Amino acid sequence: MMKSISLTQYLVEKQREKNLIPAELRLLLEVVARACKRISIAVNKGALADLLGDVGIENVQGEAVKKLDMIANETLLEANEWGGHLAAMASEEMEHAYSIPHRYPKGEYLLLFDPLDGSSNIDVNVSTGTIFSVLRLPEGATRLDESVFLQPGSRQVAAGYAVYGPSTILVLTVGDGVAAFTLDRETGSWTLTVPRMEIPEQTSEYAINASNRRHWYPPVVRYIDELLAGSTGPRGKDYNMRWVASMVADVHRMLSRGGVFMYPADARDPSLPGKLRLMYEANPMAFLVEQAGGAATDGRQRILDIEPKRLHQRVAVFLGSRSEVERVTAYHNEHRNG
Ligand code: AHG
Ligand code: MN
Ligand code: MN
Predict the structure, then answer these.
(1) pTM (2 decimals)?
(2) Given 23, 124, 240, 304, which is the most exposed site by the fewest CB atoms within 10 A?
(3) Which atom belonging to ligand 1 lies closest to the Cα atom of 212?
């Protein structure tokens, strides 16, 4: 029988062999994983613990907050505030950055998260997840406000997500490939189940919310119409489409068997550069996708190179199998250049 490797052992080995992760970062990742385990239990209980439905308020994004959005947010804050490994946290569900309370020591890392991604799926029992990104506190930072977080995604030291699906799976990168761990509910431990996730360069599967077609800009219409034309069109093969409407689930499928995931900017509100948030959705997913051999752009440039201006800024997202991301990005560039 194959010996099972736990998340702790995986991280200790990364620390020892490659000197990749300092002990503080290892602690941070284990605490995040523990919080995800708690969130998974809450998601799993659902209606039995009266956890479905809305709280009755809107978050800073103008979206209805679900009970589980709030529980997931509080679980991550509580789990991470006392360990001494963090300087501050930021979340989709909080307008401002959260500095570690004075009664606890402060560390040199910053944690950003989308506590519950795809939360509109909660009430219909479809997969949701948690997405997180870890940055270092910039040297010489004096104030722990929003500005310390505004670093390009290329500076992330770790990123990952947990997907609460038929199994609960944690997918992680510390900049040395991507590994997946499945939660063993009997022992309570995360067990390494995919040591290296790799996105095939070619794919015949894509994910986009096609109901927005009438709002899309021409490069997206061109790209999708070519896919839809299938084997009789310019691409010369048939494509299949899937859209869970939980980014974690769509990206997890893509990391598992390839594909391209898109949430473009569109003409619904030209002031918004897309729907997804750069700092705690696009950046961590882009880091994972690149580490798995794929590519991630906003239709113009590499997502990880974007210099953020605001904590909750939005961004267009094209990520997944390299050849498709390059093509849809090229269509955007061609369109811009007339
Ligand atoms: P969140 O639940 O954290 O607000 O994120 C929802 C996001 C993302 O998970 C998903 O890909 C997308 O919204 C779905 O958008 P549509 O409802 O427009 O399809
Ligand atoms: Mn989300
Ligand atoms: Mn969310």
Answers:
(1) 0.97
(2) 124
(3) 18
What pLDDT is stored for residue 20 in this prediction? 83
Residue 203 Cα to ligand 2 midpoint, Å, equals 24
In a domain, 307, yes or no: yes
Q: End-to-end CA distance of the chain, in Å?
A: 60
Q: Whose CA is nearest to atom 11 of ligand 1?
A: 247
CA–CA separation, 212 and 222 (whole Å): 14
Check if 245 has its Cβ closer than 6 Å to any atom of ligand 1.
yes
Higher pLDDT, 304 or 15: 304
Ligand 1 pocket check for 290: Cβ under 6 Å? no
Give nearest CA residue, ligand 1 atom 16: 245
Split into its structural domains, the chain has a count of: 2
pLDDT in tens, 12-60: 999 898 788 999 999 999 999 999 999 999 999 999 988 899 999 998 8
What confidence tens digit (pLDDT) does each residue in 233-287 have? Answer: 999 999 999 999 999 999 999 999 999 999 999 999 988 899 999 999 999 999 9
Q: Which residues of 281-308 are buried (b: 16+ CB within 10 A; e: fewer)?
A: bbbbbbbbbbbbbbbbbbbeebbbebeb
Final residue belonging to a domain, choices 166, 194, 222: 194
